[in-house]
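Please decode residue identities from the backbone states below.
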């Protein structure tokens, strides 16, 4: 009988049905798992399910019977893939479930910022419309998306869907070439990309090469005062450089759904930025529509079933 341990069930909404596989198994669920608890909880597990709980060499050494790590997400930076491969542990993830929900969240943030929705709603609640004494008033800028340039970093399924939505709004779409590398077909050199974009939306993984992709040098190249949208990974942006770019008027605003540390410290820089009316911060929910979470849960069961059949899908290890 396979022992399956779900380390952080609370990362999926409680109203989402997580189907169990059809093969003989025992299923143990923990809502949350602290770093010091992981090894003990996996000591006799054959299959581990994790969304954000880290699986490192020490954990793997304490779980000699572990055969599969199923990541209940697409991003896999919480799992040491090389250490798993060296120990014969298969790692699989979930793919394609967020191809609608993340792009829609991108445009929710973008439209709110571009049209100053949050300050206008706040002012109306405070009575500003009545004080204006006419049919409308103009305290904040309102800008169209049509005719603006959408700059996308990352050309996977999510980046592609963002491009489709941008085109539907009448935006020009450009893709960034990798920073420090010459342009490639269909991509714009990174510095030129920064200079041309009215919006920059990040949809690439976090690697050594993409960490702090948007830093002081990148912000200095931004000629059109773009809005920055990050629904990918927090450390793609140097927050100190972002704050300085806002203060210097190099960018118009930012919509941020992710943090390098989640939740971010209450006294940290991200929360300071969240107090700026030009910045919208949401709690890593771009992926989390009901439809997307149910698709994720169903695919997670598919991953377990496929592994049990000896035909693993969405495999990350060699």
């Amino acid at each position: 009988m396979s022992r399956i341990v779900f380390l952080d069930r609370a990362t999926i909404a409680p109203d989402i049905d997580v189907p169990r596989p059809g093969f003989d198994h025992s299923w143990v669920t923990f809502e949350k798992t602290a770093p010091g608890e992981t090894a003990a909880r996996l000591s006799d597990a054959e299959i581990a399910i994790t969304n954000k709980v880290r699986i490192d060499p020490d954990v793997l050494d304490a779980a000699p019977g572990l055969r599969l790590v199923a990541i209940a997400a697409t991003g896999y930076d919480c799992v040491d893939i090389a250490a798993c491969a060296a120990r014969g542990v298969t790692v699989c993830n979930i793919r394609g479930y967020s191809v609608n929900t993340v792009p829609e969240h991108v445009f929710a943030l973008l439209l709110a910022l571009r049209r100053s929705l949050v300050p206008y709603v706040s002012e109306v609640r405070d009575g500003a419309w009545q004080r204006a004494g006419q049919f409308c008033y103009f305290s904040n800028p309102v800008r169209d998306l049509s005719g603006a340039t959408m700059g996308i970093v990352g050309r996977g399924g999510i980046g592609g869907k963002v491009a489709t939505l941008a085109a539907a709004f009448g935006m020009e779409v450009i893709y960034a070439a990798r920073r420090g590398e010459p342009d490639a077909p269909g991509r714009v050199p990174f510095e030129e990309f920064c200079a041309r974009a009215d919006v920059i939306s990040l949809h690439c993984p976090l690697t050594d090469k993409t960490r702090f992709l948007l830093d002081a040098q990148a912000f200095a190249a931004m000629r059109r005062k773009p809005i920055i949208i990050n629904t990918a990974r927090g450390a793609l942006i140097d927050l100190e450089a972002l704050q300085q770019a806002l203060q210097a008027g190099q960018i118009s605003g930012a919509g941020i759904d992710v943090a390098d540390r989640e939740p971010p410290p209450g006294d940290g820089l991200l929360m300071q930025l969240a107090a700026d009316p030009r910045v919208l911060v949401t709690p890593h929910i771009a992926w989390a529509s009901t439809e997307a979470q149910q698709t994720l849960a169903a695919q997670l069961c598919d991953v377990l079933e496929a592994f049990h059949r000896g035909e693993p899908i969405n495999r990350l290890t060699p």
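Observation: The chain has two domains: 2-95+290-308, 101-281.
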